[in-house]
Amino acid sequence: MKQRFAGSAGELAYVDEGDGPAVVLLHGFPTSSQLWRVFVPPLAARHRVIGPDLLGYGDSAKPTDADLSISAQAGYVVELLEHLGIEEFPAVGHDVGGGVAQLLALDTGAKALVLLDSIAFDVWPIEGVRMLQATEPDQETEELVASVVRLSLDLGIAKKQRLTDELVEGTVRPFAGDPPAFFRAARAIDGRGLGGRDDELATLDVPVFLIWGEEDPFMPVEVAHRLNELIDGSTLALLPGCSHFVTEDAGETLVPLVTEWLRAQYLREPHGHAAAQPLIQLRPRT
After folding, report:
1. Residue 14's Cα: distance from chain center in Å?
2. Is the entire prediction scored with pTM above 0.90?
3. pLDDT tens digits, one per residue of 38-48
4. Which end of the chain has fewer CB atoms surrounding its CB within 10 Å, N or C?
5. Which structural domain, as residue segments, surrounds residue 232?
6. At 257, which CATH number?
7. Of 276, 255, 271, which is closest to residue 49 (Cα–Cα)?
8. Domain for residue 94, yes or no?
């Protein structure tokens, strides 16, 4: 069951499971903490897992006048973590949540980064999001939200057997009854906050793990290579046959991969003899 926190701009719903060093999971557009459903139980065996629904998403409040930019979202997450007494953590982010995670590392001091098919640099928002941003108020219907979500998941999930009605309905549900909230979230994806910070990323002194679907049509793999080349010591894992929503395409592979990387690079604990992942290309930046 999600807990709730009254933040400065609205109430945040969040997952809080496990007992140990904290790890923060950050979803993107148009998802929620549901994105991490297969990650939470395994990670909670070693970590305190905090998975907020970003403001305007999931079960969190959807105020009509709040700032939903990545800079603001990073601030709301910091408020939550301060409320929970969490000072040190790795940030794991997908899509827009990856942008929030980068800001938490650059501005707040997150101690490690795992970025999955993340926004980066100045290469966002993508054309599809810009089209959503131009939607007229009288077009902001539940039917359009459902159509856009299904299309996004269809393009972003390579393994079509995993694109279930249950997944689509779970992604649409938080916007049922308030479809304009979906478009407010889309309009907040403004491309600001990460552009022009290459030098800061290059000198980021924390472990960084980049995970990317090779068939991502939204944030192409070239973005991953650019991040890998820029961030000294970062490691890039490319997932063949996977698209943008890698947690759906390859969750069973990513859970042990991320768990073991956090063990080795963040917790610095002895090797746990995890099974090898032969289908993933690992590329360290040295």
Report:
1. 14
2. yes
3. 999 999 999 99
4. N
5. 3-123+192-284
6. 3.40.50.1820
7. 255
8. yes
